[in-house]
Amino acid sequence: MPTKNTSIRFDESLHNQLSNYAKQTEQSVSAVVEEAVATYLTERNIVTDHKKVIDDVIHRFTPLLEKLKDR
């Protein structure tokens, strides 16, 4: 799926939490934010194609889930 660049400003504390979470889960900050926004929009019924969003997230994070499963 093509991506778009954007700029987001965070409170320093929130940014630190985000960075730490990304490191712990071996993801980029961008991937964490993208997943969070997709989840937020889906939960609030803003996204009309819920299945596609869910499938995209599952597909993107399956390798990470496999790594974590083996720990």
Structural notes for this entry:
This protein has three helices and no strands. The protein is mainly α and 71 residues long. Helix 1 packs across helix 2 and helix 2 packs across helix 3. The mean pLDDT is 85.
List its traits.
single chain, 71 residues, mainly alpha, 68% helix, globular
What is the fold's blueprint, element by element?
Elements: H1 12-24, H2 29-43, H3 50-69
Helix pairs in contact: 1-2, 2-3
In brief:
With 71 residues, the chain is mostly helical. 68% of the residues lie in helices and 0% in strands.
> Radius of gyration in whole Å, from Cα?
13 Å
Average pLDDT, to the nearest integer? 85
Number of helices: 3
Task: State the major sheet.
Answer: none
Stretches with pLDDT under 50, minimum 5 residues: none
Report the principal-axis shape: globular
Taken as a percent bin, the fraction of beta residues is: under 5%
* Gap between N and C termini: 30 Å
Task: Tell me how many strands there are.
Answer: 0
Listing every helix as H and every strand as E from the N terminus to the C terminus, the arrangement reads HHH
- The computed structural class is mainly alpha
Helix content: 55-70%
